[in-house]
Amino acid sequence: METTDKTAQRSQSADDKWKWWVQKRNKLLLQRKLMEKQPFTVEEIEYICMCSKKGFSAQSPLIEPQPPLNICGDLHGQFHDLLRLLNYGGYPPKTRYLFLGDYVDRGPMSLETVTLLLLYKIRYPDDVILLRGNHEFENLNSVYGFKAEILRRYGDEHLWNKFNETFNWMPLAALIKKRIFCMHGGISMYLTNWNQIRTLPRPMPFPVDPVSTDLLWADPVHNQKGWRGSVRGISYGFGEDAVYKFCRYMDIDMIVRAHQVVQNGYEFFAANHLITVFSAPNYCGVFDNDAGMVVVNRKLKCTVKQFRPPKPMPKRSISRSSS
């Protein structure tokens, strides 16, 4: 017994030293990222992925955070909009965040977006929660821009593989005080108890069952009853009646999800039992949509904040003589 106690003490001491080293180094990286705007080295990204994977692997696939916190939807590589969102909502750790996935692809700065969020997660593990979106799977981010961005900037697939190894350990859902259920995609007709999420296997290189698939891909559909095959060709679309039934059966009050562009940055469904939140304004430069953020206070009251896309800079006329 004494030997076991000493071994446990040494292990705890090693963990404390690891946490201290991670926090010290991560603080320096985070400050450099925000202040100096320098690109990360290969070694720094490897370090960020290593620390993140270690942190995610210690978490359940179902996170159960306490309020207050801000819930944000898709970001899709819109790094400057992420900075605007943090400036608008407050920076960690003073403001706590739950992000619902889709950090990469389509936008121009996926690398900066996901590395900044991972740094915040390492630095403030209890104040920043990162769920996995459907674009945090290599079959999508190999096609929609993230892989190409890394190849263009670093020359090979090594770092892309490191990121996806990290993504494979990310949690899929969050349950706030047993009343607000959050995920990237949607609810599942196959989900009947929370342990089905808690026991999902990881690492997860691809969705392993209908529950994980629906959490990542399902959508609410207006003017539909029940469940129908999704127009996406994967998972299901569900009607308002399915939301009411799910909330009653699982004994929850609200569902917060992302996954779809909505013009105001948020959209209510099923008499406010479900909110879609999308946090990438002027998505892909063509939608002219607002960004949304759901603010949950200590009493679980939810309010929605919006911010508009930044106004384009006025074009300056340049005379021939000035060139």
From TrEMBL:
This protein's UniProt keywords: Hydrolase, Manganese, Metal-binding, Protein phosphatase
Catalyzed chemical reaction(s): O-phospho-L-threonyl-[protein] + H2O = L-threonyl-[protein] + phosphate; O-phospho-L-seryl-[protein] + H2O = L-seryl-[protein] + phosphate
Enzyme Commission no: 3.1.3.16
GO molecular function annotations of the record: metal ion binding; protein serine/threonine phosphatase activity
Organism of provenance: Trichuris muris
Enzyme kind, highest EC tier: hydrolase
Protein name according to UniProt: Serine/threonine-protein phosphatase
Domain Serine/threonine specific protein phosphatases: 131-136
InterPro entries: Calcineurin-like_PHP (IPR004843), Metallo-depent_PP-like (IPR029052), PP1_catalytic_subunit (IPR050341), Ser/Thr-sp_prot-phosphatase (IPR006186)
GO cellular component: cytoplasm; nucleus
Family: Belongs to the PPP phosphatase family.
Cofactor: Mn(2+)
